[in-house]
């Protein structure tokens, strides 16, 4: 099941990315999913689902957006290294 959401945007929003409304909407879904993943709000699987792409495609998007696919805080990393 899907839900459709309507968002009002100024006409110039589409030209800013050189896209049409459908492409812009897809890009916005992907950008939101990447950001939510980056700040730890959602998992990779959920982000891919929200973005409407495969997990592999989502990982490629993380590379394009320069976001690490590994979401570990410095404290978590230090704890893990201390256990070894």
UniProtKB/TrEMBL annotation:
Family membership noted in the UniProt record: Belongs to the UPF0175 family.
PANTHER family: UPF0175 PROTEIN SSL1255
Name the record gives this protein: UPF0175 family protein
Organism for this UniProt entry: Phormidium pseudopriestleyi FRX01
């Amino acid at each position: 099941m899907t839900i459709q959401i309507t968002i009002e945007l100024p006409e110039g929003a589409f030209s800013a990315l050189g896209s049409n409304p459908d492409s812009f909407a897809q890009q916005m879904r992907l950008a939101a999913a990447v950001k939510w993943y980056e700040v730890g709000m959602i998992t990779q699987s959920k982000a891919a689902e929200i973005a409407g792409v495969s997990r592999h495609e989502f990982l490629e998007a993380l590379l394009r957006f320069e976001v690490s696919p590994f979401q570990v805080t410095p404290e978590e990393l230090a704890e893990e290294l201390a256990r070894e």
